[in-house]
Amino acid sequence: MFLENTVNHKEQFGWIEVICGSMFSGKTEELIRRLKRAQFAKQNVEIFKPAIDIRYDDEMVVSHDSNEIRSTPVPAAANIRILADTCDVVGIDEAQFFDDEIVAVCNDLANKGIRVIVAGLDMDFKGNPFGPMPALMATAEYVTKVHAVCTRTGNLAQFSYRKSTKNDLVLLGETEEYEPLSRAAYFKAMLKEKVKHIQVKDPKEISKKPEKSDE
What does 26-54 look like in DSSP terms, one character per residue? Predict the structure, then answer.
């Protein structure tokens, strides 16, 4: 459970909160919930997202269930450092798409007394740690891992399985491209994909030996 930090005005430092999980796990929904609470408390809040994320809207951060909050799209993490300098709370969505400088940016903001809330995928579609997310999770005061529901087993899902054959690491998509899977379902799906690509030679061809030359 996430417990919000008790503000000690004698300590002029902020903190970092990371919300991570698979596709369709509610990461953005939780990010928006925390940011709207801060706005309701009359805090100065700014939200940022990578400029490449235009799935739902060019400027809004939108969750899968259509909850939304206005944001500023930025092409690089360095832009956040400049734009968020006077904020009380900074929200960052889809952090896995940012360059590695996002880690230093988040820590610099926290060291200035800003509460930084970051949401992103912890693993890519291959099941590997995604971009700067591991470093963000390591340096954060709070890490919340949320889960989706596996579409094949009904169990908790922590893997984002890509249904398409595209192999690009960054591929924006929704249910037509991805589905959340549990460990067991993901393992079986990946094994099935490997079997598809195994080349099996005809036993008759293998048994044939090349004829020896008379020379």
Answer: SHHHHHHHHHHHHHHTT--EEEEEETT--
Does the global pTM surpass 0.85? no
Q: How many CB atoms lie within 10 A of CB 162?
A: 19
Query: Quick one: tokens of 189?
Result: 């799906």
Strands 156-157 and 148-149: antiparallel
CA distance readout (Å), 49 to 52, 64, 91: 8, 15, 8
Tell me, what DSSP letter sits at residue 141?
A: S
CATH of 15-146 given 3.30.200.20, 3.30.565.10, 3.40.50.150, 3.40.50.300: 3.40.50.300
The conformational region for residue 42 under phi > 0 = left, psi -120 to 50 = alpha, else beta, is left
**Residues with a known catalytic role:** 94
Using one digit for the tens of pLDDT, what is the confidence trace for 130-156?
999 999 999 999 999 999 999 999 999
